[in-house]
Design brief:
Layout: E1 3-5, E2 8-11, E3 16-20, H1 27-40, E4 45-49, H2 64-77, E5 81-83, H3 87-94, E6 99-100, E7 103-104, H4 105-117, H5 121-134, E8 138-141, E9 145-148, H6 160-163, H7 174-181, H8 189-198, E10 203-206, E11 214-217, E12 221-224, E13 234-239, H9 248-251, E14 254-256
Parallel strand pairs: 2-8, 3-4, 4-5, 9-10, 10-12
Antiparallel strand pairs: 1-2, 3-13, 6-7, 8-9, 11-12, 13-14
Helix pairs in contact: 3-5, 4-5
């Protein structure tokens, strides 16, 4: 059984975990990944979304509400379904707008809520904010893989700093901000290695930065793009029973999203 430990989920050395990143309102991709999970679904297998399942580039094709309602339902009814918070969910909690290009995605999301729920849109927004606050920030596996939206955070001094990472709230919280926002240029190789030592892991999986499927960073981190991508759309079928010495060991577990008619 998995175990919630504050804002950290601990997974046992058993089964597999499907790890996907950054759906950003793409319902077709989301549904396909859920179908993949259903093929593996049993007590020993897990489904992980590393945040940013809301906010498409434009309102026309933005299915954030449909995805959010599905994620919420799956989380409430499946103990092995783990959505994490990304910086876009954080923006909904904090009421700080996020942009891609010149598009205010936070404003677009509120407009979608107004169109869907009318005068009750504020109540629905409150409901979603409370849901996001309940979600974990990171996952650590027994075979020493750390999974989060972004990061690492550079001033994590102990595992307790992850477990209690939201105790200081969602604003003016450097550790939380960095684990949701840090990209490759924001930390050094030493920062990454130090973080992994502190959380007793050998490798890290993140999303956040669009890449061509996956990108290996310093043999210690895999950046994954499962939907919002610079090319290929890929995900991880993480074997929780296999020894993971570094992120290179995870490369053979990378799968490409395929569509079938």
């Amino acid at each position: 059984m998995s175990n919630y430990n504050g804002k950290l989920v601990e997974l046992p050395k058993r089964g597999k975990a499907i790890v996907i990143t950054d759906i950003h309102g793409n319902l077709d991709d989301y549904d396909r990944y859920v179908d993949i999970w259903e093929e593996y679904k049993n007590d020993n297998n897990y489904f992980i979304i590393t945040g940013d399942f809301i906010h498409a580039m434009g309102k026309k094709d933005d299915k954030s509400i449909e995805i959010l309602d599905s994620v919420k339902q799956c989380w409430e009814n499946n103990e092995n379904f783990y959505p994490l918070i990304g910086n876009h969910e954080w923006s909904t909690i904090s009421d700080i707008s996020v942009y891609k290009g010149s598009i205010n995605q936070s404003l677009n999301f509120k407009e979608l809520l107004r169109e869907r729920f009318g005068s009750n849109w504020n109540k629905k927004l409150d409901e979603y904010q409370e849901f996001f606050k309940k979600l974990p920030i990171a996952i650590r596996t027994a075979n020493k893989v750390f999974i989060s939206h972004a990061g690492p955070a550079r001033n994590i001094k102990s595992l307790d700093d992850i477990i209690n990472i939201t105790d200081k709230g969602y604003l003016d919280n450097d550790n939380l901000y960095e684990i949701l926002w840090n990209r490759e240029e924001d930390y050094t190789e030493n920062d990454l290695k130090s973080f992994l030592r502190t959380v007793a892991c050998n490798a890290m999986i993140v999303g956040h930065t669009p890449v061509d499927g996956v990108k290996l960073i310093n043999d210690k981190q895999l950046i994954v793009s499962s939907s919002y991508s610079q090319g290929k759309k890929e995900y991880i079928e993480l074997d929780l029973e296999e020894k993971i010495r570094d992120a290179k060991d995870i490369l053979k577990m990378v799968k490409q999203l395929h569509w079938y008619s």
